[in-house]
Amino acid sequence: MGVSSIMRIIIITFFVSSFFSAWGQATEITAQGKVTDARTGKAVIASIRYSSIPTGSIFGRFTDSTFSFAIFGTAKYQITAEAKGYNARTVIVDPKDIDAHNKVLRDVILSPKGETIVLENLIFAQGKATIDPSSYPGLDEVVQMMKENNRIEIQLEGHTDNVGSAKANMELSEQRVEAVRKYIVAKGISKNRIQTKAFGGTKPLRNEMTPEERIKNRRVEMRILKD
Fold first, then answer.
1. Is 97 exposed, middle or buried (0-12, 13-18, 19+ CB in 10 A)?
2. Which CATH number fits domain 29-110: 2.60.40.10, 3.40.718.10, 3.40.1260.10, 3.40.50.9100?
3. Is the pTM of the predicted complex or chain greater than 0.90?
4. CB 53 within 8 A of CB 122
5. What is the model's pLDDT at position 127?
6. 117-226 maps to which CATH number?
7. Beta strand extents in the chain (DSSP E only)
8. 15 or 158, higher pLDDT
């Protein structure tokens, strides 16, 4: 066997070994979490289903208050939890968020039916309705939830803190919920399934005037109107 043939074998062997090594490492990643009540933090027994995005070719189902499953390749996965008396909730796990133990940890927090769901990690430019790109993953979870269940209709409710002009705060909250609505519609959800309502600073979560408490008052909430 000539030198060139040996070199080709070495190169092919290295490529194949690297390929399977990479995939072998991917199959060791585990998505893991628990389902809890938003008010109490207690575990909730739920119907939990997961599937790969966007094809759904890898999927599974649990009935439990915890979940654990292997992530294959680099695909993201959506996890939906449903329980009696609660709003369904969909979250997305991404292999890029792997920790030192080869796990992607993500809990699913359920709110009781009739209560709003605060859209966590939704960040706007100061005093504006421009959505920060770091907020997109959280909004994409709303999109996935509405794609999975095409019966769901929601209302986005905008709130600001109660500092400054009441009129300006009302206008800002209107602009922000409209920005969120436009983002969701741009992802393929019918605008007829999304209503908006603005409250300005009239419904604070906290009445304290510290910067930390004022931040909590600046929020967008989602109300499930139909599911």
1. middle
2. 2.60.40.10
3. no
4. no
5. 86
6. 3.30.1330.60
7. 30-37, 46-53, 59-64, 66-70, 76-82, 89-93, 103-105, 108-110, 117-118, 153-159, 194-200, 219-226
8. 158
